[in-house]
Every structure is written in structure tokens, then in C-alpha cells.
Amino acid sequence: MAIFLGVDTGGTYTDAVILDDVANQVLGKAKALTSRQDLAIGIGEAVDAALAAAGVAAGEVALVSLSTTLATNALVEGQGARVALVFIGFGDSDLSRGGLSEALKGDPVIALSGGHTHAGAEAAPLDLAALEEGLRTLADQVSGYAIASSFATRNPGHEIAARDLVRRVTGSPVTCSHELSANLNGPKRALTAVLNARLIGMIDRLVAACERHLARVGIDAPLMVVRGDGALISAAMVRERPIETILSGPAASIVGARWLTGASDALVSDIGGTTTDVALLRGGLPEIDPEGARVGGFRTMVEAVAMRTTGLGGDSEVHLVTEGLAGGLHLGPRRLMPVSLLAVEHGPMVHAALDRWLSTESAGEMDGRFVVPMTGQRGGLNARDIAVLDRITRPMPMASALTSRLEVAALERLVARGLVMISGVTPSDASHMLGRQEGWDGAAAEKALRLLARRRTGAGERFAGGPEVLSQAIVDQLTRQTVDCLLEAAFAEDPRFAAEPPVGLARHGLTHAGMDQHRGIVEIGLRLGVPVIGLGASAPSYYGAVGERLGCPMILPDHAGVANAIGAVAGQVSQRATGTISSPAEGRYVTHLASGLQNFSTPEAALEALEAELVAEASQRAREAGAVDLRLVIDREVKDVEIEGRTMFIEARVSATASGRPRVAR
Hints:
- A six-stranded mixed beta sheet has the order 3-2-1-4-9-10, with helices on both faces. Strands 11, 12, 13, 18, 25 and 26 form a six-stranded mixed beta sheet that branches.
- Helix content is 37%, strand content 26%.
- The chain is globular.
- The chain starts with a strand and ends with a strand.
- It is an alpha/beta fold.
């Protein structure tokens, strides 16, 4: 046997699974609550229980692989540490391009002269003195730095010089944009670098927590992490490039879905606590998004599976729609801690507050809501933010943490920074009320739902006649929003509808009439043409109704609740190096690489030299990522034009991909 351990850390649960890689058999699996304060606790509980269920000794494990949705969740919820952007050779208007200013969320920017031209020549000298002054001004106000320089993919010299200075002066983590993408779009590279810098602390804590527990139980095996395209990389590499783990969990679920079902063509829908992730499996392989992963409204330059990630999960916030007379519900995108989960550890406080609120006939705006302190970096908080945070020393009713309505905005900022979490009613509470899920405090869920049902619509009527009615309405709303997610993905992947926005098509009246099998003067029918593979621990609770609505087979495989953990150890290691060749003048061909520029007199010589260097780089990175038995693939994209019978070279882009199986312990 070859014993592999897969671990997936999600927003609510951490899963672990033990696989016999030779027999392709699940030997044991387990779940534990993700312990936000110390991730090692949840990882340890899941790993130990999975080992016990499999009857496997820790020393028998030959490979450990980790997938996670923590980075994805943070971007979807707009959370992450405070960082600074070193912006070299760009103008003020560039900050508003590509969503960069939205990603910064007011975090500081150090704008410097410098940068390079399209041909890789220096456009202006780099002002290192101004950078050093800016770094000393920021001091301990940020947790890391992102560096983006104009045309750094053609010459990264200024990014490298700035990086070295930042490390020397601050000792903080630094991300350079050219290390993450070979594309030219500077603001989008900067955005990707900012998000990477924002996630470094979170992913470092995750990897360290996993390493601590593995050492504690005596597992001496390589630790790998799933990248957003489903490939594996070493834990050491992911600490520097955590942005590559966005869509890690979803990518692992695609690999796990294929492993569990053998399906060739299907939509895979994975519902977690925070998000629903939908992707197309075509010919047994996931589609890769050529434009880069889109998460939380940001289009990054990270190669990843073509995944539509929506803030819809079992722990999504339940919003009551009070506009209009009828009222309504909407779920997400923010994740809350379910009241039934908070009551597991803090039952007396939760029940006392719920009973007090229920003792009155009217429901206050903050009734049924609690705040829970988290850990994180406090730099950049204003005095009001700090005053609110200092009050939240333990889980408590939200109203107890605030002295006035002016502090509500401060609380929201603390939530966005990940320093505080809100607890309130979620679909998980509704499922406990309806008996579809168990394990948490169902009595607390019933009280919280009873309280929420008392809230009034625009017509002055109660939203629901009781907790059962409201619970069913919440589950029905989750079904509706899940159907919309799947339809958006289906329309986006169907070439027939390439020119039309999938969001509009999914919500169009004709689409819903078709699902209703409308029969009138016009007869309309609509259903999905491929099956849906439903993954996630709560999928059996919700996805039967989704399949009925879409008129398609709904596949709910065994072990669907740990598909991410299975996919974590079923992947391969892969690394790609990319370079370009430009021709600034006739008879001159320039290769652009991190090592510098090289000039050649013919395109053939330039291509040969570039390919040799890229093969060496990809192979080295693949070995550093933990691969053995390498396979190499080289892709060339040469752009030329014919003028008066002569072929003129414009540009070439070359990539070398090295892949192999992960190294295992002997």
C-alpha cells in the first residue's frame, strides 16, 4: 500500500481522509470544526480521527497534501491583512484600473519614479531614497508589501531592487508582481501582488499549523498544497506565493469529483460553509480559465480552474428584504458563525440572550446577533475601531459591544479585517431546525429563527408564522440561488450563448418559464444537458431539490463530504515558466527573463536560448515543488506579419511546463 493523507481546511470544517493510492480506496475519513484561533486544533482532530478510522499508524503515511478555501473565502468576504503597495513608474490614474483601488481598500501606496519600457530599457531611475523614507513612515502599520513596476515582466530589475530594500529595512514579507505573472497588464499584476501580500500571514499560519501537528504525531512525509489549477506545490513554495491557493479547495474538489465518480462531462457544484463553487468537467479534465481566476469580484492573473465562486453556503448570512410590501430573503455573500454552532461552546450566554430577546413582542435590529473576537494584525485601525475591538474580549451579544450607532461602521471594518466575526441565523441553523442536519445546538437555532420570524415586512406583517416556516423559506432560497449559480456556469460554458452575459440569461423570465415547463400560447422547456455532481457535507440536504428544478441527474457520491481532501492527494505537481522575445529593430531579437535581457541576431537562436533557459527554470521549480519523474512540454506562440512578400517577426511567447508525481517518503 501507498498511504496518503489528504487534509482540507474550510471556513467551517476541516476534513481529513486516508487513501490507499495503489488500490484507489478510501481507508478512513473524519471531520472537525475549523478552529480559527488555532488552526492546528481542527487539523489535529480531523487527522487523528481519520488515522484511527483507517487503522493506520502515523509512520505509514508517505505523503500529506493540503487544500484550503481560506484564501478564497477571505477574498470573497473582503478580508485580509493590511498591506502597502510599492507602485513604480505608474501614474495616479493607473490605481483606478483593473479594480486595483478597490482591492487596496484604502491601504497605503508608495508611488515612485522608475520602471521600464516595453523593450525592457529603463524608463526612469528608481528612487530608492523615497522608498526608504516611505518604509520608515509606515513602520509597523502594515503586515507586508506588494511591489509592482511598469513593464517588470520585460525587465524586473526595479522590482528586485525594491524588494531587497524592503526586506532589509522592514524584514516583512514582500511580493513582486513579476514572480506571479508574465503578463504585461501592470495594474492587474499589481492587484494580484496586493492580494498575495494580504494572504501571506493567513496561509503561513495554516501551513505551520499543519506542520506542527504532523510533527507531533510522528508523520515524517512531504507536505504538499493544492494550487488553484489542481496541481500540487510544496509547502515551502506556497508560503511565498499564497495567491496560488485561491481556488485551491475548489480545484481539489474537481479532482476529487473525477476520482469519486469517474464522470467525464458534468457540472461540479461544491457547497461549503462560505461559498458555492461551480466548474465544468469536460473530457475528464477541468477547464482552465485563460484570463486568470476571478474571486470576490477581482480578476487576478493566477492560472486556475475556470470556476464560478459565489458567496453562498451553509453558513451564509440571511438577509431579510424589507423593501416593498411582500418582503423576501437573500443569502450571502458574507459568512456568519451559525447561532447553533456558537451555542455549542457558549450555550449559557447564547440562550440567556435569546430568551431575553424573546421575552418582548418586538425584535430589535441587533437581536439574535453576536460578535466573536478573532486574532490578527491591528495596524492602521483608528481610535474608534480600537475602542470597539478592546471591548470584544469574548463572544457576546452585538449590542453589548457597541455604545452607539456610530460604532456600527467601526464593527464592520473590524469584520472586514478578520478581527471580529458575527454570529447570526444561517441556512445551517434552518437545517438543524428542520432536522436535516444535527450535531450543533438545535434549541438555539429554533430560538434564533423564532426571533427572526418576528421581524416585520414593509406591510407591517411578520416575515413568517414561526421558525419552521422561516426555516423552509431559507432552504428554498438556498435552492433558488444555487440553481442560479449552476445556470450561470452552464450559459457561460455553452458556446451558443458566448455573446450574452450569463447572469442575465440565468435570471431571465424565459429561463424560469422553461424550468416551469410553461404551457400556454407559447410552450417552453429548459433543463441542463449534463449531470451535476453535488459535493460538500450539506449537499444531500439541499441538492435533491436543485436537481429536480434543473431537470438533470444529480450525482451525490459516497465520500462527497470530503471530496476536497481526496482531491488534495490525487493531483500531480506541475510548474510552468514563461518568457517572451521581442524585436525592437530589424535583425535584433531580445529575450526577456528574470535573469535579464539577451540579444540575438536571428529569431531561431533567440527561441533556442529561451527554450533552454525556460526548461531549466521549470524543471528546477518543479523539483522545488516536490516533483519526481519529470515530463516536459514546450509551447510556442510566434506572432509575425507578412509585408510585401517578407515575413516580419513581431513577438514570440514561449512556455515550458514540467510536471511529475509528488515525492513520497520511503
